[in-house]
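Exam revision sheet. Question 4 asks you to relate a sequence to its structure. Input first:
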Amino acid sequence: MRYLVILGLSLLVWGCEGCEPDCHCPPTETEFFVTAVTGSPDGGVVVAGWSYSHEVSDEPTSLDCSCVGEYASEKFAFLNADGSYGGEIRPGIFSPAMEYFGNELTIAGFIYSDCGRDYGWTPYVETRNADLEVIRYAKIECELFANTGYYDGYEGRPQIQGRVISLTNGTFLYYGTDPDSTYKMMKVSAYGEVIWRRASTEPWSKAFSLPNGEFVFVWPDYAEFYNEQGLATDVHGFSGVPGFYAYSATKRADGRTIVAGLVEDEYQVPDIRLYFYKADQTPDTVITLALEWCQDSVTVIEGRDNDELFLAYQQRDGCGTGLGLNLVRLSDEGEILAQESVGTPGMTVLRGMDLPDIGNFFVAAVSNWGRRDKNFYGKVAKFNSRLTKIWEEGIGS
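Answer key, structure tokens:
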């Protein structure tokens, strides 16, 4: 009888109004996955990324204590010209591209929204003034892109079946797959106006911005160039080049183009190779860079003067599993003028580059170097046009 009375009292206390259970929520940690970077007019930089908070342990709590579970948001971090932290905003825009027009920052990305009974990722554009106040915005109704869950690894962001890049004439290019599995791309102004739409029977690859509002899609075995109206103009194929894998491309203001990729040497070690084309798109020269260890990927952008190129390439330390991020300033003749790095070998992966003017060059990456828990954080470095490093900072580390 005594046992029953004690048990009854215990149940009464547990169910009393206003009593708090003895909660022990698991600790949480936050990772930061960089998605985009753009230089600001004052010599600083904006870094957008996917901020992901989650439990350190996957073990559930014994009580329903309303513990904070997984939480994610897109964070925009502002760094000043000297690398000091200038603040952040969280506007709820995912997988964005960014561009400054004067002192106004335009952000183009996706928000999760509806179109009738359908749901998906909707293109959204907003502009903020120098005080980061929203001065205009536009949601592009019923232009949904598909959603299929989450990426793993250093991508670490919603798996939106769409991407957006900033073009050089004040517009943005959206491309990807809609909920009906139709492949599409659309050009959108900084005011959210749809300028044109295009559809395709084949999936798009990765797009890169070119001068004059043009762009290029790069597949492993060819690169297809488009004009500002979204019409294909030239294709460079590499199916006849054994062991070559294209990664990126760029275009000079005078119409010359360059395709960058990797090719295996006689020992099956990947080296960087650049294919140059004249303004009429006939083949010009081919340059192969036999750098140390194994290269994993390469991204090329045009320099601001003297026909120079900047290359960012992933390098596997000792051809193993560790990834380092290295940079090269290269002449058109293939002469290496300068070399630098961001982070150290371990797992440092390129997420974006921006060369807003002659004096500044920004490189953003995601890294877990130096972290015992192997969680990822943002890494951004500022260089001058000679590829001299000015500073390097971590975000969310």
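Marking note for examiners. DSSP finds one helix and 30 strands in the chain.
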